[in-house]
Write a structure and sequence with these properties.
The chain has 500 residues and is an alpha+beta fold. The chain has 2 domains: 5-172, no CATH class; 186-491, Neuraminidase. It contains 9 helices and 27 strands. Helix content is 29%, strand content 33%.
Length: 500
């Protein structure tokens, strides 16, 4: 249908006005918080290497397109430019959602109020508006317009694809190490739907597995080792008037411990009645803890003097006695982000393991935090790959580039360390990395790598936590708990404790 000149003019005015509102708002939101915008760009797995240039180019280009829209004879160029930019944004989001090793946070502006999938549809709507504007504005030379639109799409998508191939995301996630995958060292055995994905492993004892719940912090779920029965217990505290924020529960049978490192406070009780008594409150604040026995708790805190992550030991028989061991966790960059990790305790051998998140190292101590040895995971990342910045207007410290996560989550049992790795090795299929998590197994006694195996996704969800008890590996995947039966190729490495 042929449109009148007035109708064409109204459509063009509407489309250009909508684009001007979009680009002025988007550019202004970036420029008003420019430093934070640069940091957020740096966290992108595709753009971190080019964050400085892109942080200036994107708002400049958005404002330039607005200027083209204001000048009537330049509107066609502006529509083609807007079309190409929106195609580029859409291609970027598509690659992030489907091919990136992780999905970063938003980059400010409208994106903060929309999910990544919603933003794709938002972009597509504006792409359609640009196409309509191009075709309606001066209806001559339609074939030429289609050619330019097609060429613009190829250029925009191709440019983003090239950035992806050259990005640190690809370079950092292909490592020159080789894993050993023996035949079926772990096979799926049983599963149970927990109907929530907010559970975490709290411990085990007497053939039971205990799960804490982040959304119901005073509840503990008791499940038998065959996943046939489950019982919900409600923990009763003898002191409730505390400013709780991050309650954590750990079970070291027959005791359980409830702590909040932000108060900070510690409660202890027995699993026979789930009543916990207040033990201590006071400095230091702590973020992780691992019960050693009925009288000692290992914890991780940020030491005030050095402002770095440090391991310490609470003596519950003397709540004024706090021991710090600052040499166990080793600083490389800032002492906080670079030293992040997981604190594990092997009650069978009375050893504590601290495994780093961003580098291939772990430290092993005895129950008194005396350093026994340091070991390395199989990957090649010996130095944490982090860029840490402080935002000047807020004083907030952030990661300015996507962190290279080396070790996702870990568990220890009878001198054997299980690590869910985040890095593919040499000759490994990237398709398998989308379908499963890889667990690497290590012998803590001789610090050797043993073997690897897969834990498969459930409904597209990867394993977020694992726990070992006997020849069972328990995995939390989405709202499910899955049991993998460990075969002899793994269990033969479980050492029997030698009694002194």
């Amino acid at each position: 249908m042929k449109l009148s000149v007035r109708t064409q003019s109204i459509i063009i005015e509407f489309i250009t006005m909508i684009y001007i509102l979009l680009f002025v708002y988007a550019a202004a939101s970036k420029l008003l918080d420019f430093e934070n915008f640069q940091v957020q760009l740096g966290q992108s797995p595709l753009l971190s290497a080019y964050a400085y240039f892109i942080s200036y180019a994107v708002p400049t280009f958005e404002l330039l397109i607005c200027c083209l829209f204001i000048i009537p004879r330049c509107r066609m160029i502006g529509l083609f430019a807007a079309y190409g930019l929106m195609v580029m944004f859409t291609a970027y989001i598509y690659i992030i959602l489907n091919y990136s090793s992780f999905i970063p946070c938003s980059c400010g502006g409208i994106l903060e109020d929309l999910s990544w999938n919603q933003h794709i549809f938002f972009n597509i709507a504006f792409i359609i508006l640009a196409i309509i504007g191009v075709l309606v504005n001066n209806p001559k030379y339609q074939v030429k317009k289609y050619i330019i639109l097609g060429g613009g799409s190829i250029f925009s998508i191709g440019l983003v694809a090239i950035l992806f191939q050259l990005s640190e995301n690809v370079i950092h996630h292909h490592n020159n190490f080789t894993r050993r995958f023996p035949h079926f060292p772990a096979v799926i055995d049983k599963e149970m739907n927990l109907y929530a994905d907010s559970y975490y492993f709290a411990g085990s004892g007497n053939g039971k597995i205990y799960l804490g719940n982040y959304t119901a912090p005073l509840q503990i779920q008791e499940i038998d080792s065959t996943l046939k029965t489950k019982t919900v217990h409600r923990i009763k505290l003898n002191k409730m008037n505390l400013p709780f924020t991050t309650i954590q529960i750990k079970v070291l049978s027959p005791y359980f411990y409830l702590v909040d490192g932000n108060v900070p406070c510690i409660f202890r009780g027995k699993t026979t009645d789930w009543k916990a008594s207040y033990i201590m409150r006071g400095d230091p604040y702590f973020s992780q803890f691992a019960p050693i026995d009925s009288t000692k708790i290992a914890f991780r805190t940020i030491l005030k003097k050095t402002k770095t992550n440090t391991l310490g030991l609470f003596d519950l028989t003397d709540t004024t006695s706090i021991k710090f061991e600052p040499k166990i966790i080793e600083k490389q960059i800032d002492g906080v982000f670079d030293t992040d990790g997981q604190t594990l305790y092997d009650s069978a051998f009375e050893k504590l393991v601290y495994i780093y998140t961003y580098r291939n190292q772990y430290s092993v101590t005895d129950s008194n935090l005396k350093l026994l040895n340091r070991g390395n995971t199989i990957d090649t990342t010996a130095h944490a790959n982090l860029k840490v910045v402080t935002i000047s207007n807020s004083g907030e410290t952030k990661l300015a580039a996507p962190p290279l996560i080396v070790n996702n989550t870990s568990a220890v049992f009878k001198n054997t360390l299980f690590v869910s790795s985040n890095l593919p090795g040499k000759y490994e299929s990237l398709l398998m990395w989308k379908k499963a998590a890889i667990v690497d197994v290590y012998n803590l006694e001789n610090r050797s790598y043993l073997l690897s195996f897969y834990i498969y996704n459930v409904d597209g969800e990867k394993m977020r936590s694992l726990y070992i008890e006997g020849d069972n590996l328990y995995a939390l995947i989405g709202s499910n708990i899955i049991i993998y039966k460990l075969r002899k190729s793994i269990t033969v490495n479980f050492k029997q404790r030698i009694l002194q």
